[in-house]
Structures are given as C-alpha cells and as structure tokens.
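job 3f2a | input accepted
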Amino acid sequence: HGRELRPHDGVSTVEGARWGTFRGCVPADHLDVVGQVNDHRPNRRTGWDYVRFYRNLAFDLAARGL
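job 3f2a | predicted structure (66 res):
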C-alpha cells in the first residue's frame, strides 16, 4: 500500500476482499475471521464471534434460497 493507510484485515484490503454483494466490514483481523486455532470464544476486545457470524450467514443464505 506504500504510505497510504487503507482499511485491511492484516492480509487483504477492503477493496481487494469485496466480491458479490458487499455487506460491510467486521471488527476482526484475518485470523479472527477464519477462527484461529483453539480460539472458541468471542474476541475480548472487539466482541467478534466468528461462530455466530458464520451461523447467521448460513441462516441468511438459506432464507434467501442460496
């Protein structure tokens, strides 16, 4: 990114990660999004809960017939 600061998760910029219908950003870094090894609780600092996120995503996709 050079000297320009842009939102990212530690691996990908928001611009590079967008595909399909963009639904916003989540308060997590790249490892939190994929569920770090032995990390079964919500993030203490941000409240990010990857299990809840993916469960809700699955329910939303099912409700839309996808």
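job 3f2a | The chain is about 35% helix and 0% strand.
job 3f2a | closed
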